[in-house]
Amino acid sequence: MLSGLAAILFGHIAELVKLRGLAAALYAGAAAFLLFALGFALAGLGRWLALAHGVEFPELWIALGLVVVAVPFIGFGLALQTRKPKTHPATDIALIAGPAALRLAARKIDARLIAVGAVLVAGVVLGRRLTR
User: Fold this and answer.
1) Same domain, yes or no, for 78 and 93?
2) Are 1 and 101 in contact (CB under 8 A)?
3) 45 and 8 both lie in a single domain
4) What pLDDT digit, counting tens, does each position of 84-113 carry?
5) Which of 2, 33, 36, 73 has its CA 20 to 30 A from that of 109?
6) How far is the C-alpha of 41 from the C-alpha of 103, rounded, in Å?
């Protein structure tokens, strides 16, 4: 039973780490695009100052395009960072502990059975509320 509980908790932690890792990778991609945009913008600004408004500068348009590409990376990174995991460990723990409690309760019908039944019902109710 304890190995099942540990597996559920480690699975939950692994999912959180995966989501945070994806968000970090998207932030790194956005940072790379912003660095390229800064380089192109500086090159374009240097030509603009040198030629004093003579021609259109494609470097500035490239820089703007890279910034536009970086914005969705930031948006998706924020969405993944704030997203909650799909599963909640409380429901899985309640499902694993339930059969053991039923086996304990099946031995005799007495006050202990009623107490275990109350704990099971309270656990299911609490697990349902935690997963909402």
Assistant:
1) no
2) no
3) yes
4) 877 777 677 777 777 777 776 666 566 766
5) 2
6) 71
